[in-house]
Amino acid sequence: MAKVAAHGARARSRARRLALQGLYQWQLSGTPAQEVIAQLLADQNARDTDVDYFRMLLRDTVSDCVALEQQYGSYLDRPAVQLDPIERSILLLGTYELRSCLEVPYRVVLNEAVELSKKFGAEDSHKYINAVLEKVCAELRTTEFNRGSRRSRMPR
Structural domain of residue 72, as residue ranges? Predict the structure, then answer.
């Protein structure tokens, strides 16, 4: 299979969406991440997708899911095991990006997570996802988050 070289915001969004599918499949089936990656790339149209970013997101999120869940777990209003698999997947992805993809602005991470939850999650899950990830962001990217928060509160 030829590797697709796609870059840019849209390609990254497609990579996140594919990673969400992969995380959902991994949770329900227990299939190893490398197998899920191979299956998704064989079954899905990966054109216009940042395939390298997708692979990294899925592989690294699965391999570090315990630490990622500890990172966001204290901000949940219920035990993590009670999360819907879509919510859990989005929180894992968002927390991973906030922690490990510092080149991606936190606002992009939050917006992408909210959009995924609006499209695939329960009716108001985007509000919950946003609230939890904002707290994770304030912890992991304190300076960037505080700078952005001040700017959004300034009168225009």
Answer: 9-141
